[in-house]
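User: Just a sanity check before I run the rest of the batch. Below are the structure tokens for the first item. I only need the designed sequence back.
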């Protein structure tokens, strides 16, 4: 074993002369180094963007959401309350009502919006909406016989609304009742109490009203559309989801924060691992150089290999010599590349060296990075495995050399 290590090192790092083999070996090491460093940096940037988007969405999305499987609303029964009360991981449970309505203001352009009725005291405990408010506040109580409403900035600009203006909402159920009962549509009036800015997170206009006002608007009486839940520990969402789903039964549907925005999160993960496999091509090019350089070493050292076989080296010992050379190339390249990649990530995270184009319209000014050690392990492990696999053919070829053939060819 020690002899195999010594011979592999001498073949790979011999300083007698600089030959084509040495050049190919250096190219192989450089390729593994560059590929490994790029993979670590790119995956860390994808992780950084994922974390930014996730934190933005979780400022409004709950950790868990409970909805009914059939129908659009359900009453909160004593059995549901008991299950939730017996779940110690739950910090806040906030029922809500959600639906579409037509909003209008003094004959200006009508617009269909998403309306969400919430209990302000509970909603404020799990949603970070206050941080996005730039006018007014989360005041949805009835004042002067008119409930409050919270609008998004794009919607307020579109309808030219300010704090204190009144708007009218008409739900689909109200329109249907007017048509079936031959009466005028029941229009609900609200006063604008707050405006928030969440343009990068939510594309569709969303307005917030008190849950009691939403029940009147959508004619739901004592029913809700679902229950939003905030946990003490965000990372336990999947485990709590499985337990709640089992306790509540099949008539309810429990979703985690990931499920609520699954298409977006899935696309980001797909892009991340797509970039991983594409950038591994750089390492693959370096691996092909390893095949070439080690094969040339086998041809050049054919006499030495025959001599080693004649003094008792077995086939697996000869294979070990060349497999170790591939391992050494991969180990050197991965070590240097790993250090370089982690250093670049640290510098970008600390000093924001590379700025985002158009950063003035986004919430961050530079490319975010977040190093995940599992990704680093995948990168280093994948590169090392490719390097060892690349040395397999030259090692098999070297092990197949017979002492008599080596002397005859020499």
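Assistant: Here's the designed sequence for the first item:
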């Amino acid at each position: 074993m020690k002899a195999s290590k010594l011979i592999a090192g001498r073949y790979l790092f011999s300083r007698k002369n600089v030959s084509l083999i040495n050049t190919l070996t250096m190219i192989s090491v450089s390729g593994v180094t560059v590929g490994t460093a790029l993979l670590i940096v790119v995956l860390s940037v994808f992780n950084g963007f994922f974390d930014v988007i996730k934190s933005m969405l979780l400022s409004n999305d709950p950790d868990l959401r409970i909805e009914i499987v059939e129908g659009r609303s359900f009453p909160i029964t004593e059995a549901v309350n008991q299950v939730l009360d017996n779940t110690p991981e739950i910090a806040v449970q906030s029922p809500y009502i959600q639906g579409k309505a037509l909003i209008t203001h003094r004959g200006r352009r009508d617009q269909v919006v998403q309306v969400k009725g919430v209990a302000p005291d509970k909603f404020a405990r799990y949603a970070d909406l206050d941080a996005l408010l730039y006018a007014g506040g989360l005041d949805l109580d009835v004042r002067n016989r008119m409930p409050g409403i919270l609008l998004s900035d794009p919607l307020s600009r579109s309808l030219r609304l300010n704090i204190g203006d009144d708007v009218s909402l008409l739900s689909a159920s109200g329109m249907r009742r007017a048509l079936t009962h031959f009466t005028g549509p029941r229009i609900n009036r609200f006063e604008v109490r707050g405006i928030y800015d969440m343009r990068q997170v939510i594309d569709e206009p969303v307005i917030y009203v008190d849950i009691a006002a939403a029940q009147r608007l959508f004619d739901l009486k004592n029913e809700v559309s679902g229950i939003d839940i905030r946990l003490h520990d965000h990372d336990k969402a999947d485990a709590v989801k499985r337990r709640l789903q089992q306790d509540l039964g099949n008539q309810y549907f429990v979703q985690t924060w990931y499920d609520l925005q699954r298409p977006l999160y899935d696309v980001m993960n797909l892009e991340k691992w797509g970039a991983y496999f594409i950038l591994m091509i750089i390492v693959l090019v370096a691996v092909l150089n390893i095949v070439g350089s080690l094969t040339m070493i086998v041809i050049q050292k054919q006499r030495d290999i025959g001599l080693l076989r004649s003094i008792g080296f077995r086939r697996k010992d000869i294979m070990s010599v060349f497999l170790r050379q591939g391992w050494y190339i991969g180990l050197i390249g991965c070590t240097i590349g790993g250090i370089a990649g982690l250093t670049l990530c640290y510098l970008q995270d600390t000093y924001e060296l590379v700025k985002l184009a158009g950063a003035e319209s986004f919430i961050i000014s530079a490319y975010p990075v977040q190093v995940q050690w599992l990704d680093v392990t995948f990168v280093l492990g994948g590169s090392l495995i490719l390097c060892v696999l690349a040395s397999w053919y030259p090692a098999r070829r070297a092990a197949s050399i017979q002492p008599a053939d080596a002397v005859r060819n020499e």
